[in-house]
Amino acid sequence: STQFYQQFPSKFLCRLLSIPSSITSRFRQFSTASPNINFTIFHDKSSLAVPTQVYFRTPSDLENSESPLDHDFKSAKSPVRIHYDFNSGLKTVSRSVQVNLKNSDSSNILPQQIRKAVHSAVTALNDEKVEDAIFFVPELNNSISSLDFIKILTQSIPLSNYRFSKHRAENAPSLKSVTIAAPTHLVQESQTDEVQKIINQEQTISGNTNYARDLGNERADVCTPDYLEKESWLLQSNNPNISVTVLSSQDLLKEGMNLHLAVGQAAQSPPRLIVINYNGDTSSKDRIALVSNLSSHPNS
């Protein structure tokens, strides 16, 4: 579930799930969960003409507000509040989605709170059938910088937007495009390239995470060992740093891997061992091994 992924720090996800951005576009064909994410710096908020705007409200922000509505929002059970503006006409109704960054310690907002708030916002946007939204970077005044906030935001939006909708189109998320906006006093023009690099990396990580989710959620009679082998060869064909080795049933028998063979001996798709090697940094001597098991279902 989305909540499961929210508990992990971005460094963990990056270490285990990051795959080169050169093949990210292929992965996104498998999932509709990854909206297009853009970034902009603004001097005047009125120049941003996106009808749905998302604001993150900090505990101190709500505490210092003189609005009775904000005082109610501070203690409300729901972390999301939506305001509608009909002044511009019913055909162009604008929404203001406010998200409460709840915390018992108002001086310190933690990354997991941001992820939880983003998940609440994305859920609300999909409930409202919103396709385009703009997320404003808040001023947190704590250990999380604006760039860190953008990093968490870019990673969390696609993960929270995930729906496995391959077989049920009505379950597909409505959110298709997101703009992250930061005022000039939080992000300078000279940092634009750095921000874009962060967005590209986090979209790669979250996009590939959703790709793995799609594989895990696929029916057992579709995502067979044969299906996964074909996916592995596609990875190799799309990136020169990836090499694939597949041990067939005969190879497993020669290697004495009888337990592996025994588990899948009744399956329609014979068992095999797929080894995917990624050598991104040829100068590094570090090796990380990830071992996973796909039990061969009798119907596979």
What does this structure look like?
By secondary structure, this protein is an alpha/beta fold. It has eleven helices and eight strands. The strands form two sheets. A six-stranded mixed sheet has the order 1-6-5-2-4-3. Strands 7-8 form a two-stranded antiparallel ribbon. Helix 7 links the parallel strand 5 and strand 6. Helix 6 crosses helix 7 and helix 7 runs parallel beside helix 8. It is elongated and about 75 Å long. The N terminus and C terminus are likely disordered.
Termini separation: 25 Å
Structural class: alpha/beta
Low-confidence stretches: 1-30, 296-300
Mean pLDDT: 81
Q: How many E strands?
A: 8
User: From N to C, what is the helix and strand string?
Assistant: HHHEEHHEEHEHEHHEHHE
**Individual helix count:** 11
Helical fraction equals 25-40%
User: Main β-sheet, in a few words?
Assistant: 6 strands, mixed
The 3D shape can be described as elongated
State which percent range the strand residues make up. 15-25%
